[in-house]
Design brief:
The complex is a heterotetramer, with two copies of chain A (about 80 residues) and two copies of chain B (about 150 residues). With about 80 residues, chain A is of the alpha+beta class. Chain A is built from three helices and five strands; from the N terminus they run E-H-E-H-H-E-E-E. A four-stranded mixed β-sheet of chain B has the order 1-4-6-2, sandwiched between helices. A four-stranded antiparallel β-sheet of chain B has the order 5-3-7-8, with no helix packed on it. Classes of the chains: A alpha+beta (about 80), B alpha+beta (about 150).
């Protein structure tokens, strides 16, 4: 799965993109976020307040129960601030 | 039509491109957003707009198509810049053309309200105290909410 | 500022003149009215705008000042042409600039509603059957009436 | 007094401007229109439907009882049709 991070999520996590392999028991957006939090302090800190984290799956806004699988592009970002 | 680009744009040229040869247009509305100097002329008000290439274009295309569904438009053009912008620079432009002025004015307001609140950009402001990410504002959501159709809002 | 003139105008140049050097402007709204071809491409849709030199400028100046009283504007420009105009030609332009987009959008709509309904111009339309003076429309009065302040309408 | 006519009033009356001397008993806008109607068929026809005739005195919109005097500029025109 391709993960993308934007704005302060990118800064806190320390990268703008990474390729990961999902554990077998992770199959929706909420699962991805919960799993990411276990990957270290940077992730835990960046995703602490997950009410302000927005997620898009394959460039479409997603909800916590939106299904994800290994071929997807999943983006995490703060609420947009417009142009 | 929509464009997301680093480069500046020429509003007059875009207007001519949209209207030339179409004498069905009676009204052309536009809005241009500019970087405001928030620091009182110290020059410390540059900002950087980050976006999600691909998703930004998709969402801008969707909202442009929505405007064409809601109003009888002869044409429209949305340009949004990204990257670092200094005070006085152009950020965003909306043009809407219609036979009648009300459709042009209303669709222009609809598009710019959406762009300023819902478009997938994140703003990093430079201040004398360093750079900071702008937080989303509730008042912006309200401006965009005025346009929500009851049957499709969610 | 206002101008009443026979000559065409360059919207892009007017925008630059209004915004250059003023980094307090965050939003620039505009509306351009164009001659629409009402005759289906036969070219028989030219019109002539007659006006009352002196009074036109006075009334345009008054409404421009009224817009500045109602909204916190950084600048505005109204240009209205007179004389014979062919389909596709520009008739009128309104530019309004403000720190925030809503003031720019609302004042632009206010000014163009007034200009299209209350400005002292009379329209002579050329049709295949000859020239005829356009009658004032009730719907235009309603559009302008939306902006009337209760305490000052009469 | 300087009289100005615009649009179809100009066409029907046959001139765009004229200098006139007001009769002593004419001292308001309604009086000017009533007096003009007596000046011939063209005036009578042009001003027949005086509900659609608008008047400005010295470039300011006037009402039937707006006073006028010899030095004024009085303009008669149809309802404006905007730009």
């Amino acid at each position: 799965m391709k993960l993308l991070y934007f704005a302060w999520l990118k800064q806190k996590i320390g990268t703008d993109a990474e390729e990961i392999t999902l554990p077998d028991d992770v199959n929706d957006v909420a699962g991805v976020i919960a799993w990411l939090k276990t990957r270290g302090d940077k992730y835990a800190t960046a995703l602490k307040d997950d009410a302000v984290v927005r997620v898009a799956v394959n460039q479409t806004y997603a909800k916590p129960d939106t299904p994800v699988s290994d071929g997807d592009e999943v983006a995490l970002f703060p609420p947009v601030t417009g142009g | 039509m929509i464009r997301v680009q680093r480069e500046d744009f020429d509003v007059g040229a875009e207007m001519r491109a949209l209207t030339t040869g179409n004498t069905g247009i009676g009204g052309l509305a536009s809005f241009v957003g500019l970087v405001r100097d928030m620091a009182g002329g110290t020059g410390d008000s540059a900002m950087t707009l980050e976006h999600y290439p691909g998703m930004t274009e998709r969402l801008l295309t969707e909202i442009d198509e929505e405007a064409h569904r809601r109003w009888p438009l002869e044409g429209s053009m949305v340009i949004h810049r990204h990257g670092r912008l200094e005070p006085g620079e152009q950020i965003v432009m909306v043009l809407t053309a219609s036979a009648h002025r009300q459709a042009a004015l209303d669709s222009c307001a609809f598009l710019i309200d959406w762009l300023k609140t819902q478009a997938p950009f994140w703003k990093l402001e430079e201040t004398p105290d360093g750079a900071s990410w702008v937080e989303a504002r509730a008042s912006d959501d309200q401006a965009a909410a005025r346009w929500a159709k009851p049957e499709t809002s969610g």
